[in-house]
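Checklist before submission:
- one chain only
- standard amino acids only
- sequence pasted in full

Submission:
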Amino acid sequence: MKKKIYPLEGFAGRLRELWLASGKTQKEIAHQIGASRSAFAHYIYEDGMPNALYLARLCIVFHVSADYLLFGKETNNGEGIERNGTKEGN
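Returned file contents:
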């Protein structure tokens, strides 16, 4: 019997959309962020939230900001992000 898939909102919904679009397995994503498959499953099914370290790693893997994952919007306003004294972005 297949697990019923239902639409999720908020953090879990956005993370789940990114995961499904990636075409990767839960185990592959979990390995990329250094977590167990069951921990990642908790994140995408609204059973838990990642700590700051795993949140940062999820952002890197999916090429999104923490603002997007947590709040559903980017707050960068296009100014670019300063890294190592140089500005990147638009």
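Reviewer check: The radius of gyration is 14 Å.
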